[in-house]
Amino acid sequence: MRVFDYLSHLDRRIIFLLVALAVVIPMLVPLNLPVDITGPVKNVYDKIESLPEGSVVLISTDYDPGSEAELYPATEAIIEHCFRKNLRIYMMGLWPAGSELGNMALNKIAQSYNKKYGKDYINVGYRPGGQVMLLSLGRNFGDVIKVDYQGIPIDSLPLGGGVKSARDISLVITFSAGDPGILHWITYFHARYGVPICGATTAIMAPQMYPYLSSGQLTGLLGGLKGAAEYETLVDKKGRGLRGMDSQSIVHLLLVGFIALGNVILVYQRRRG
Amino acid sequence: MKTILPLIIVFCCGFYMLATFFIPARFSQTSSQTLQNWYLGVMAFFVFIGIFNLIKINVDKIQRKLRDWQYSIILLTFLGVMLGAGFIGGRDSKVFLYLFENFQVPLGATMFSLLAFFVASASFRAFRAKTPEATLLLIAAVIVMIGRIPIGYLIWHKFPDLVEWIMQVPNTAAKRGILFGIDLGLISMALRVLLGIERSYMGGER
Amino acid sequence: MIVGQIELRVCDTPNDDGSSITVEWNAGPGYRIFEILRSTEPDGDFEKVYEAGAGETIFIDSDVKLGKNYFYKIVGRNDSFVTNSQVAGPVRPEVQYFNLARLPVLVCIIVLFAIIILYITRAKSGEKLFVRKIPALKAIEEAIGRATEMGKPVLYVPGIMDIDDPQTIASMSILSRVAEKTAEYGTSLYVPTSKSMAMTMAQQIVKESATRVGRPDWYNPDNIRYITDDQFAYVSAVDGIMLRERPATNFYLGTFYAESLILAETGHSTGAIQIAGTAMPDQLPFFVAACDFTLLGEELYAASAYLSQEPVQLGSLKGQDLGKLLFISVIVIGVLSQIFNWHFFINLFNIE
């Protein structure tokens, strides 16, 4: 059939156009699909819920603008939860752009909760060196961090001066798009110092983390935009995660359609010999 | 000497760093820390070498009016503006943050979003049931793609649980198997490098 | 040692550099805080060194001097009563020169090294070792030949990580051989790098490879250039090179992340033959779907040994295979241990 001959050589640009429409149309006409909560995401939520007030949570924003669409909504949702529980946030980043993105979320949400910089939260900015830096950090924060991201001496800030080593951190939450990132925190912080680690990764990286979830090295995991949407549901704060799920749903169905079409074409070609 | 000296350094530093993993004593951890700090220092210095290389190649392109030399002007201009904004105003300066939030962030997100289009074209081309293994892969991919979206839960409330099982059991088992192989390959390559059997990364005589 | 109503245990922190003492306690419910007090004499002045909350049961005191004796006691408080534990000590922080908790790791490393060295020795003695064909590596020379016939360049992408990454080292080893072939045939070789150190290393490797085959004139340092550290800016630059220069052969060998599919699909659209290799398990499916040949995980690390065909290097591959067989046996025994509760075997693999 001519249709199948045409489809077997379908111009990629038509595929791209259909994907673009599948993303844009649900944004204009929201479907408001309900989101189910999965175990790994619930584990993150339960872990933060279990922390006593005043506990220090180290948040590491290890991503760049390319992954901002997937990880920034998760960053906001988790910071929201931490401040709601009156936990103290110690933010840093293993990627240069990540610390700026994290800072945007931190300042925005801290304002809405009337949190004080230096006492309730602190941002020490980008720390280069990857695994090498993390090994030093866990042993003695003072070896690696002298000033915060604004250049203020760290010891002059109540929260900064109070965190001396990994033992002062109750939980590490890393928003990770690659390397250095979540695996470094697991290897060089959890394995060496026993600090529990929760993570949020891009959807592509999430399957790689399941062995660490099974073994308990990773306490909980938010995978991709769906993970962010689930967490927004748990903290009851609609954000970009929930808004993006409609588009993601339609695109997934479109991909399944493409796969089905490709296999129908294969069957047709085989029959034609 | 040109070949022997680097090999000696690789041998000594490599096995010493391995030993410090097992020796908790202060002299071991301090020296290990020092070596790691040296690496950080060297790495920071190399950033300048990359920037000089970038500038040199693009200035040369402009001077010789090679193909697309106009883009080199744009590149060098923005390189200068970002560097200048950062050095003069600091990382919190309005100019630097404006350029970061309105140029770098959207551009990076745009490039990442290309994946959505490329996944579609790759799926259409490559996910064909040509062999039994490819069919199995195809079925698993379809189940995971549907189960990962809210519509999957609406179709069948156990769909997400099925997806979690696929991710946590066969997927995890396969990943662990691949990781074991990778780690063994890494150990073998590391030993070849440490013992000087593998030298092609040095560019010298093998 | 266990003392009093609040059970207090103190000991030198195991497997450390003698800079801390571990204080653990067990107390009934009802306490609001625990004050940990320390002195250098059993009857001396005790000073408070830490205040623990209700849920805490362990404190690592790292403000101690090596070789000095210390005594501890705990005061548990709530709103209506105070309980003192008995004094525990003396305890002295001491240096450990070997981390016993990591002994299983050392044993595994020694066993693996011994196996690999054994096979290297056997290879040196002239024993012929069989290594299976790896299609991707067999295709390298053909792919370079294709580019030469078409009069188009070869593009080599060594990943986006720096030279401290083992995959980058493995990639550079393969680059050395690819550079030899391209220099021999006079085909242009582009190597855009994402890291400055990787650029320097690649330049050195390509130059030396060209010299080795007697073509030092072929080497052009501008073809091996630094692009940017930013992941997606780098991939957009490489995509631009592919679309402008139209290389006939693309190599993607090293560490890749999300950009893997962008590179592979763009390369596919230009009609290039593509050979990829990475040890990133989540990127392998993209390369398998979009490239003609893919080196899977450990094949990337084995590539240099395989391409050299030197008996000594091939010997290490055989040793690696035997190591894998050993791991499979350990996994099978481990599964049986869990089923039959052979705790001794399971406990051998607890690592701190």
UniProtKB/TrEMBL annotation, chain A:
<keyword id="KW-0472">Membrane</keyword>
<protein>
    <submittedName>
        <fullName>Uncharacterized protein</fullName>
    </submittedName>
</protein>
<keyword id="KW-1133">Transmembrane helix</keyword>
<feature type="transmembrane region" description="Helical">
    <location>
        <begin position="14"/>
        <end position="33"/>
    </location>
</feature>
<feature type="transmembrane region" description="Helical">
    <location>
        <begin position="250"/>
        <end position="268"/>
    </location>
</feature>
<keyword id="KW-0812">Transmembrane</keyword>
From TrEMBL, chain B:
<keyword id="KW-0812">Transmembrane</keyword>
<feature type="transmembrane region" description="Helical">
    <location>
        <begin position="39"/>
        <end position="59"/>
    </location>
</feature>
<feature type="transmembrane region" description="Helical">
    <location>
        <begin position="103"/>
        <end position="124"/>
    </location>
</feature>
<feature type="transmembrane region" description="Helical">
    <location>
        <begin position="136"/>
        <end position="156"/>
    </location>
</feature>
<feature type="transmembrane region" description="Helical">
    <location>
        <begin position="71"/>
        <end position="91"/>
    </location>
</feature>
<keyword id="KW-0472">Membrane</keyword>
<feature type="transmembrane region" description="Helical">
    <location>
        <begin position="7"/>
        <end position="27"/>
    </location>
</feature>
<feature type="transmembrane region" description="Helical">
    <location>
        <begin position="176"/>
        <end position="197"/>
    </location>
</feature>
<protein>
    <submittedName>
        <fullName>Uncharacterized protein</fullName>
    </submittedName>
</protein>
<keyword id="KW-1133">Transmembrane helix</keyword>
